[in-house]
Each structure stands twice: as structure tokens, then as C-alpha cells.
């Protein structure tokens, strides 16, 4: 098998960063997330390949928090489009976990299927190579295995690294793009036989069996009020979620010129569905809360055949009100909704 | 499914406003085209995102496509972008992107008697279906249009309502105002009650409804009372929209996106969705 010495990671990253924009999990002071290797500051940053889970998910690599769509200029009698932006820079995400990769598989469904293709997303996606890190020690809030994700075999990875606990990662190329990385990194890869790591059990587990079907029967249940009671509709859960992808489209005008851009939005905000004249189909926190959890656990499943929650646990850690999606799944499963 | 001519479905094409018709104190119809004519072909009931840069974008039904010549939008002034749009003149350039949405089931309705029920600006989308039926007159049976507004001034498309459509073969137009008004000797009263008065028999008929949510709610009840089954009743839904292509997330009702899977649904389909419409 091929193995990669951990001591060589900085050199490996420098090499990868020559040809592409490389994103790796970093701890930057209080914050952790997937950052460009270019931003790595030896004095204050640490590589966080073993952190479960870095706070900021890698979705911004494919769906930036804000991105320019096109620019325009005002002319006599109207307007002209000047430039349609397209990001075609090659990218590598290194060290993504199976849950976050499954979230990208969800984004692929939303942005690339069903009639229309989102060209902005596609341009990035087509140029992105993914090196996933297999998880052998799930974190306290992880429950990906309950959501149909195999933490040892991250689905959709171009290459996989496995932490043996020694100074080596096992390196496995899985696709032609992964083989290409193996060639690029040939000088750093060694041949060595090492035992596979032992995987540990999940502390947090839920039973999703039948939950989507059950939820489809209970839209009008008063239990939603109880479940949503503590929610402050702050939206942190949606921003930190690796699979939440709702966006807003806005305009920035600078004199005669300007640009249209899009940015992350959150279904937890009242403005999200507010229409002219004040009609709002999801005016209350309970209605928005219900839509968020039904979208995650029922609607996305109905439409694309997979839940829109991958069990990464971030919303459980971040929610100021203690809302816990794994508990909601269990409540949905066990509740007698007929009441 | 996707027949957008542009490569990137989120980028508008620039068109020129070639004609503006004042319909009511707050509705104008805009005819738009580029140098080649229509920027894209639409089916009756489909949508387009109209973009007045830099102010904003809004989703509108294409009220009619006149051959390859131009698209028509009937737009009510209700907020930021529509206010501004009402102040521009002929020759002004705006953006449009589309076509979006499923449109009306014009083929499935062939051979049927058609009952169109609209309130206020709700006639804007139905008009594309009405005009399509009249254009393909022999494909459809009897055509009845029931249309109401708050006042005479608030009725859209008056020349078609009072002049053109009633002259068509086997076509009837019924108009009603919410309140009595000097000089109006037509019907007075809300649409659902006028509908029950007229009591059009359901046999062989398709009813198509669009208007304010409250009007739709009561008209649906009346139709049910009159014996229409859920497959015979078609309506169009409105939700806040941004992308128009089923990506941005906000226009969902259950697992359906109104911009992509709608805006047209029959009642049988709607009853399967969560009650958020
Ligand atoms: C499927 C569909 C078909 C429509 N057809 C027509 C039509 O034929 N004629 C017509 O006059 N109006 C129609 N509308 C309503 C029209 O989209 C809104 O009136 C318009 O977007 C308001 O824009 P504004 O900037 O003036 O209002 P503001 O209140 O200033 O808008 C703020 C933001 O909210 C959005 N918004 C506000 N109201 C709506 C709404 N009802 N639906 C979607 N987005 C909204 C705007 O696009 C904008 O992004 C339709 C809406 C939908 C969803
Ligand atoms: S993080 Fe918690 S409080 Fe904030 S919107 Fe999400 S569920 Fe509600
Ligand atoms: S809903 Fe919560 S646990 Fe599920 S993927 Fe999103 S952030 Fe992770
Ligand atoms: S408008 Fe974006 S999903 Fe429908």
C-alpha cells in the first residue's frame, strides 16, 4: 500500500498549492475551518486534520458565502451586462470527512440535477479534487453512520487518507483525478504495509428508519410548537451546516456600474419568504423551524433520495438554544403524533 | 425541460420596452423584445424574472407571447422594483431571464369547456391561457371568463374583456365589482358568490383560478360545492422567489419548488402538499 509520512505534509501542501487552490482544515486562533493553505500562518495557525469537526464546513469552497454573478453598467436608456463571472481555478480539498463530503453530494443533487444546472456551482465543482480523511474515532456529536454515511469509506472521494496512529497516513487513490494526485505526489508517497486502524463505536446514534415517512403524515401536529419553543431563529444552524445551501440574490450599485451577487441566506429568517403586501406563508418561528427540519429529514429525501442532514453534529454544538437534530429525529420517531 | 436560451440561467438577457399600456391605476402592461424579437419562447402560464438594474428583480407571469415579436408582462406596482418600473418609459432597457415553471396543461385541456376565474391582477397569468384557447379556438369547447376587481378602474385588459373576447365564438365574459359604483350596471358582489349564482355545470369542464389567496380559497369551496372534482380544478401559486430554477430554496411547499414544479397545479396535486398554500 501507499503511505504518506505526516512530516511531509507541509511540503505536500506547498506542492499541491502550486497548481491549485488548496483548502485544508486549520485551527486559526479561536476559529477552525477549511481555509486556503495560502493563508496558513506558522505563528498562529495549526493544521487541524484530526479535529472533529472543524467549526466551519468546507461548503464555502464550492458555494462561497458571497459571490459575484455578473456586472453591469448603466447606459443611455437602460443597462448592459458587462461580465459574467466564472471561477475556473483548480481546487483541492484535503482532509474532508465523510459527513462533509456527503453534504457535497447533496449540493451536487440540488445544484446539478432537475432541469437546470447552476453554472457558478458547476464551474467550481468540475475543477475540485477531493482528498477525504476516513474517520476511525467519531466525535461526541457525530452521528453520520445513522444518516447513511460510511465514515470509513467517504463516498465520492478522489483519494482517501487513513490515519494509522503512527507517523503515516495510508494513501488510496479512488478516481482518475485521485491517480493524478498520486502522480503529482509520487516523491512523497512510499510503499509500506501497515495495519488498518481500529474503528471506535459512535456515542450518538439515531434510528432514521421510517422517520421520513412518519414526518410526511404529521405536518399539522402541535408537537412542532413544543419542539421549536426554544429556537431563537438566529440561523447559526443553517450557516454552519455543510449541506444547507439556500441563497439570496442582491445587487451592489456603484455609480454607473454595479454587480449582482448572491450570498447565503437562512430559512430561519422571516424575511426569507416575505412577499410584497406583507403576506408570509411561514411567518412564525414554528413554521420556519418545521420547514427546516422537514426539508432536512423529509422533503430533500423525497426529492433526491437522501436526507439533507449528514450527521456532522455542528448545529448541535452551535445552537444557543440547545436544539439537537438527533433528538428531533428520535422525538419524531417515538412521538404519538395523533395527539 | 429546460429551454432557456442563455448558457447561464441566472443571467438576464437585455430587452427593450417597446410599448406600455396603462391598465389600471396600479397595473401597466409592458411589451418587451430585443433586436430579434422575443428573447425566448414561453408556453402559456410560464414565468420570467424581470430585472430592473440596479433596483431589483421580480418574478412575473408572461401574460402573453405575441408570435416571435414580443413578450407581455402585466405588472402591479407594489414595492421597490415595480414602483421604479412604473416610472420608466418606452425605449428603456431591462433584463429578463426564463422561461421558468411548468405552465398550463394546454394539451390536456383540449376538447374541454373552459371556465376561467380571476380576481384583480390574477387575470395576468390566466390571460395567456385564454388567448391561447382563442387562438386555437377549435381545440376547446365553450369558453367562460369570470373576472372581478375592487372597482371598474381596477379591471385589467378592458378592451379584451368588454370588446374582443365577447365577440369570439361560444365565448362569454362575466365581470363583477366588489362594490356598487356609479355608471356600472353590471354585476356587483364577490367572485365566489357570483360563481355560485352562475352555477356552471362541471361536466366536461376545466376550471382555472388565479387571484388573491382569500379569493382562491373561497372559489375552491364554491367549485367543490358545485360538484367539480379535484382533477378539474387548476390554479397557480405564488411564493417568494429569487432564483427561479429550483436552487435558492425559498419557494418550496413540501418537496415541490413552485418556480420549477409549479406554479400551475391541479387541486389533486395541491392536496398532497403541506397546507402552506
Ligand atoms: C409565480 C409568480 C407570478 C407572479 N406574476 C405576477 C404578475 O403577472 N404580475 C404582477 O404584478 N405580479 C406578479 N407576481 C408578484 C411579483 O413577483 C411581486 O409583486 C414583485 O416581485 C414585487 O417586487 P417589488 O420589488 O416591487 O416589491 P418589494 O416588496 O419591494 O420586493 C422585495 C423583494 O421581494 C420579492 N417579492 C415581493 N413580493 C413577491 C411575490 N409576491 N412573489 C415573489 N417575490 C416577491 C421581490 O422580488 C423582491 O426581491 C408574481 C409572483 C410569483 C411568485
Ligand atoms: S441555531 Fe438553534 S436557535 Fe438558532 S435558528 Fe438554529 S435551531 Fe434555532
Ligand atoms: S443538520 Fe446539523 S448535524 Fe445535520 S448536517 Fe447540518 S449541521 Fe450537521
Ligand atoms: S425561486 Fe429559488 S427555488 Fe424557487
TrEMBL record, chain A:
Source species, domain of life: Bacteria
Alphabetized UniProt keyword annotations: Iron, Iron-sulfur, Metal-binding
Pfam families associated with the record: Fer4_22
Keyword ATP-binding set for record: no
GO molecular function (one): metal ion binding
InterPro entries, sorted: 4Fe4S_Fe-S-bd (IPR017896), 4Fe4S_Fe_S_CS (IPR017900), Helical_ferredxn (IPR009051)
Domain (4Fe-4S ferredoxin-type): residue spans on this chain: 220-252, 300-328
The keyword Mitochondrion belongs to this UniProt entry's keyword annotation: no
Annotated protein name in UniProt: 4Fe-4S ferredoxin, iron-sulfur binding
Organism name: Syntrophomonas wolfei subsp. wolfei (strain DSM 2245B / Goettingen)
From TrEMBL, chain B:
Entry coiled-coil feature ranges: none
Superkingdom to which the source organism belongs: Bacteria
Listed InterPro entries: Cyt_c3_hydrogenase_gsu (IPR012165), Dihydroorotate_DH_Fe-S-bd (IPR019480), FAD-bd_FR_type (IPR017927), Flavoprot_Pyr_Nucl_cyt_Rdtase (IPR001709), FNR_nucleotide-bd (IPR039261), OxRdtase_FAD/NAD-bd (IPR001433), PyrK_electron_transfer (IPR050353), Riboflavin_synthase-like_b-brl (IPR017938)
Cofactor(s) needed by this chain: [2Fe-2S] cluster
Keyword Iron: yes
Cofactor mode of binding and number, as noted: Binds 1 [2Fe-2S] cluster per subunit.
UniProt KW keywords: 2Fe-2S, Iron, Iron-sulfur, Metal-binding
Domain FAD-binding FR-type as annotated: residue spans: 10-106
GO biological process terms, semicolon-separated: pyrimidine nucleotide biosynthetic process
Positions with a binding annotation for [2Fe-2S] cluster: 243, 248, 251, 259
One annotated GO molecular function: flavin adenine dinucleotide binding
Name recorded for this polypeptide: Oxidoreductase FAD/NAD(P)-binding
Amino acid at each position: 500500500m501507499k503511505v504518506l509520512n505526516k512530516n511531509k505534509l507541509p511540503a505536500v501542501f506547498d506542492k499541491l498549492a502550486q497548481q491549485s487552490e488548496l483548502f485544508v482544515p486549520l485551527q486559526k486562533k479561536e476559529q477552525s475551518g477549511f481555509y486556503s493553505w495560502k493563508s496558513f500562518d506558522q505563528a498562529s495557525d495549526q493544521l487541524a486534520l484530526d479535529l472533529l469537526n472543524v467549526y466551519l464546513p468546507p461548503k464555502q469552497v464550492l458555494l462561497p458565502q458571497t459571490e459575484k454573478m455578473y456586472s453591469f453598467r448603466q447606459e443611455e436608456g437602460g443597462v448592459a451586462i458587462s461580465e459574467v463571472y466564472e471561477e475556473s481555478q483548480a481546487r483541492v480539498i484535503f482532509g474532508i470527512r465523510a459527513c462533509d463530503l456527503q453534504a457535497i453530494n447533496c449540493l451536487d443533487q440540488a445544484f446539478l440535477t432537475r432541469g437546470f444546472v447552476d453554472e457558478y456551482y458547476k464551474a467550481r465543482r468540475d475543477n475540485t479534487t477531493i482528498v477525504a480523511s476516513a474517520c476511525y474515532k467519531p466525535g461526541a456529536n457525530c452521528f453520520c453512520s445513522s444518516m447513511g454515511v460510511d465514515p470509513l469509506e467517504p463516498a465520492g472521494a478522489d483519494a482517501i487518507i487513513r490515519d494509522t496512529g503512527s507517523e503515516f497516513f495510508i494513501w488510496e487513490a479512488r478516481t482518475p483525478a485521485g491517480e493524478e494526485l498520486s502522480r503529482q505526489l509520487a516523491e512523497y508517497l512510499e510503499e509500506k504495509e501497515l495495519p488498518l486502524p481500529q474503528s471506535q463505536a459512535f456515542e450518538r446514534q439515531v434510528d432514521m428508519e421510517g422517520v421520513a415517512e412518519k414526518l410526511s403524515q404529521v405536518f399539522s401536529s402541535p408537537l412542532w410548537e413544543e419542539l421549536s419553543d426554544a429556537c431563537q431563529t438566529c440561523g447559526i444552524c443553517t450557516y454552519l451546516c455543510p449541506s444547507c445551501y439556500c441563497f439570496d440574490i442582491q445587487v451592489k450599485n456603484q455609480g454607473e456600474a454595479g454587480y449582482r451577487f448572491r450570498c447565503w441566506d437562512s430559512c430561519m429568517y422571516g424575511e426569507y419568504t416575505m412577499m410584497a403586501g406583507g403576506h408570509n406563508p411561514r411567518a412564525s418561528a414554528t413554521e420556519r423551524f418545521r420547514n427546516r427540519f422537514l426539508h432536512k429529514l423529509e422533503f430533500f429525501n423525497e426529492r433526491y433520495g437522501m436526507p439533507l442532514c449528514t450527521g456532522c453534529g455542528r448545529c448541535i454544538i452551535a445552537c444557543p438554544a440547545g436544539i439537537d437534530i438527533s433528538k428531533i429525529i428520535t422525538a419524531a420517531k417515538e412521538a404519538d403524533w395523533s395527539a | 425541460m429546460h429551454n432557456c436560451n442563455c448558457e447561464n440561467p441566472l443571467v438576464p438577457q437585455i430587452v427593450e420596452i417597446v410599448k406600455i399600456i396603462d391598465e389600471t391605476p396600479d397595473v401597466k402592461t409592458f411589451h418587451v423584445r430585443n433586436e430579434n424579437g422575443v428573447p425566448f419562447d414561453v408556453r402559456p402560464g410560464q414565468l420570467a424574472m424581470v430585472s430592473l438594474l440596479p433596483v431589483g428583480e421580480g418574478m412575473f407571469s408572461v401574460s402573453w407571447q405575441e408570435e416571435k415579436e414580443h413578450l407581455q408582462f402585466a405588472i402591479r406596482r407594489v414595492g421597490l422594483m415595480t414602483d421604479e418600473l412604473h416610472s420608466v418609459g418606452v425605449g428603456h432597457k431591462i433584463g429578463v431571464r426564463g422561461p421558468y415553471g411548468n405552465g398550463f396543461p394546454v394539451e390536456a385541456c383540449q376538447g374541454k369547456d373552459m371556465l376561467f376565474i380571476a380576481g384583480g391582477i390574477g387575470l395576468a397569468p390566466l390571460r395567456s391561457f385564454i388567448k391561447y384557447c382563442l387562438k386555437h379556438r377549435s381545440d376547446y369547447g365553450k369558453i367562460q371568463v369570470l373576472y372581478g376587481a375592487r372597482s371598474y378602474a381596477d379591471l385589467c385588459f378592458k378592451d379584451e374583456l368588454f370588446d374582443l373576447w365577447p365577440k369570439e365564438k361560444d365565448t362569454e365574459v362575466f365581470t363583477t365589482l366588489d362594490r356598487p359604483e356609479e355608471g356600472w350596471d353590471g354585476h356587483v358582489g364577490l367572485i365566489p358568490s357570483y360563481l355560485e349564482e352562475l352555477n356552471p355545470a362541471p361536466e366536461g369542464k376545466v376550471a382555472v383560478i388565479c387571484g388573491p389567496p382569500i379569493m382562491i380559497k373561497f372559489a375552491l369551496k364554491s367549485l367543490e360545492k358545485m360538484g367539480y372534482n379535484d382533477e378539474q380544478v387548476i390554479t397557480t401559486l405564488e411564493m417568494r422567489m429569487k432564483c427561479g430554477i429550483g436552487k435558492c430554496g425559498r419557494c418550496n411547499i413540501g418537496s415541490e419548488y413552485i418556480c420549477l414544479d409549479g406554479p400551475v397545479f391541479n387541486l389533486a396535486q395541491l392536496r398532497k402538499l403541506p397546507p402552506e398554500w
